[in-house]
Amino acid sequence: MTAQLLAVMLCSLAVSWAVTRSSIPFLRRRGLVDEPNNRSSHAVPTPRGGGVGLLAGVAVALVVGAAIDLPQLRWEVLVGCGLIAGYGLIDDFRGGLSVGTRLLTQCIASALVIYPAGGLPYLPLPPPLQAETGILAMPLGMLWLVAVCNIYNFLDGIDGLAGLQGAIAGLSLAFLAPGDSLSVAGVGIAGGCVGFIAHNWHPARVFMGDIGSATLGFLLAALPLQLEKGLRGDAVFFTILCLWFFLSDGVFTILRRLLRGETIWHPHRSHLYQRLVKAGLRHDQVSLRVGIAAGALAIMALASVKFGSPVSLWRVQAAALIAFATYWHCTVSIERSTRPYTMAK
């Protein structure tokens, strides 16, 4: 990492830490507090909307990067993130906005990013499955952005988890394309997330809120689409691996709830990380374990993409599948081991 990128990351970290800290009393005064209920994973009333500090850090990183002539993101990505952040801010402050309005906003923001970029021309799979998408390039690109935006929001449910995942993915994307706009945005995201985690680690003093989680997910999904068309398939594949424990848990839980006839957008506590907390693990125990596994997989993914051989890509994909199976097995095992204690209690 160059001295310039390190300076950008430190600026993001400092601004994120300061703005998040100063926002906590303001959010409390405005009554923007999440009260615990039977679907919550927290036990103490906690302010929401602290993601504004994280985004402030990312914004400052981009401004500093521009000031020292580092590559910048395209304007449509910034506008798209602005739409997602604006919707999230309204939802955090007012609440009660409809699912349809949320999806419409996400689709508009996604279209702004996808159509100038030309969509997702190749499937994000290892060779020989990396086929051209043809007329599906645009719809698949929009599906990718909307899906990651929502899943990241769903997985922001315990202290430290979303911030730690964001730091890992942001730093990984910075190493994927050094010297590109991804590197500037990536270190900005990493710094912003670390600054936010200082106030969000268990026990959290503030929550990210929709303004933070949805925008962060959207930005991470949009970054690989900044690369040339021929590189996007590998870049999206890499991003999937960097976000693997979020995306796999999200997709698995959504499918599981659909099979049970449940409404997938209603609040619940059935994600794997939530089940571990219900089984008795602390938030920081779950976040740290998932974060370590995510970091290890991201390092493997970076090495595989840099190495470039189909065999290495298939190996890291196999490792990801085994990692999720292990995650699920451990969750079930812990639930079974604590069930007798819970019943007796």
List keywords for this structure.
345 residues, mainly alpha
Q: What is the gist of this entry?
A:
This protein is mainly alpha-helical and 345 residues long. Helices cover 72% and strands 1% of the residues.
Folded structure, characterized:
- With 345 residues, the protein is mainly alpha-helical.
- The protein has one domain (3-244).
- It has 13 helices and 2 strands.
- It has helices spanning 3-29, 51-67, 75-93, 99-117, 137-154, 161-176, 181-200, 209-222, 229-242, 244-259, 272-278, 283-307, 310-344; strands spanning 33-34, 46-47.
- Helix 4 (99-117) packs across helix 5 and helix 6 runs parallel beside helix 8.
- The termini are far apart.
- 50% of the residues are buried.
Task: Walk me through the topology.
Blueprint: H1 3-29, E1 33-34, E2 46-47, H2 51-67, H3 75-93, H4 99-117, H5 137-154, H6 161-176, H7 181-200, H8 209-222, H9 229-242, H10 244-259, H11 272-278, H12 283-307, H13 310-344
Antiparallel strand pairs: 1-2
Helix pairs in contact: 1-2, 1-7, 2-7, 2-8, 3-4, 3-8, 4-5, 5-8, 5-10, 6-7, 6-8, 6-9, 6-12, 9-12, 11-13, 12-13
Please report the number of helical segments. Answer: 13
Largest sheet: 2 strands, antiparallel
Strand order of the largest sheet: 1-2
Total tally of structural domains: 1
Oligomer category? single chain
Give the fraction of residues assigned to helices.
over 70%
Rg result: 19 Å
Mean pLDDT: 91
Structural class: mainly alpha
| Elements, N to C (H/E) | HEEHHHHHHHHHHHH
Proportion of residues in β-strands: under 5%
Low-confidence stretches: 341-345
Task: Label the overall shape.
Answer: globular
N- and C-termini, Cα separation: 52 Å
Number of strands: 2
